[in-house]
Specification:
Distance between the termini: 4 Å
Order of helices and strands: EEEHEEEEEEEEEEEEE
Structural class: mainly beta
Number of strands: 16
Number of helices: 1
Largest sheet: 9 strands, antiparallel
């Protein structure tokens, strides 16, 4: 499970600065099946997931530290001092990831990005047979909106990725002025927020339910809870798909 701010688009002749604050209630990984829940761990002080079951992993930044008090949580490898920082969020905290295109200080692992990742956290990994629910909150702040004629490349804000340099199994990305779900290994893509501009500077919540399989019995189910909504809204579902589908062999993902 990764929360990623990857800035791929730019306008010719100038550097683009974008900031995304992604967290508060941050990312909660919840078992979708009882068998998985029994192996779960609820971190002290973590918010209860909306399913009511104990969370496998909660990254809520209540500690006020970049690792959220979670041992082995990977923070950004970008060298800029403000590439990743903990910021106030209401009465609590959130993590802010920032990228300035064209500035080498915002390059992490060979690309312009800033991210927090659970690749080294046992509760943040997935394997064939797992059924997981991922929930995270996202706030786009100081965000440069897309204008016609600019790059249409998407900027990843959250992803589930196979280990070992493989393609992501799925990710959510800002694309033009909306937010889309995509599975690059299956070539699936759908819009889940048509236009995020009315919600700039406000918290948006996302849920992705995944049945991780290496055959055609898996699923992706995507829901949102936008500002003002009283509950979750189902946006799209892909049923009967091979979700654990790396281009290169691997035993797990994050």
């Amino acid at each position: 499970m990764r929360r990623t701010d990857r800035r791929a688009g730019r306008t010719a002749g100038r550097t683009t600065r974008r900031t995304a604050v992604a967290a508060a209630l941050a990312a909660t990984l919840t078992p979708a099946a009882l068998a998985t829940a029994e192996a779960g761990q609820h971190l002290p002080g973590a918010p209860a997931p909306s399913s009511g079951r104990a969370a496998l992993l909660s990254v809520d930044y209540r500690s006020g530290t970049l690792d959220s008090g979670v041992p082995d949580l990977t923070t950004t490898h970008a060298t800029a001092a403000d590439a990743s920082s903990v910021v106030p969020a209401g009465d609590d905290h959130a993590v802010a990831h920032k990228v300035t295109l064209g500035d080498p200080g915002y390059v992490s692992d060979g690309a312009p990005r800033s991210e927090s990742a659970t690749n080294a956290v046992a509760g943040g990994t997935f394997r064939v047979g797992d059924e997981h629910r991922y929930e995270f909150s996202l706030l786009l702040q100081d965000w440069k909106t897309w204008e016609p004629g600019e790059s249409q490349s998407g900027d990843i804000v959250f992803q589930g990725k196979h280990a070992g340099g493989n393609l992501p199994s799925f990710y959510l990305m800002t694309k033009r002025n909306g937010i889309a779900f995509r599975s690059p290994t299956l070539d699936l893509q759908t819009a889940v927020v048509d236009d995020f501009r009315p919600y700039l500077g406000r918290w948006m919540r996302f849920r992705v339910e995944v049945k991780w399989t290496d055959d055609d019995t898996g699923h992706y189910r995507i829901s949102t809870r936008m500002p003002g909504d009283s509950g979750w809204t189902a946006r799209h579902a892909y049923e009967g798909v091979r979700t654990f589908h790396p281009k290169n062999p691997t035993a797990f993902g994050t």
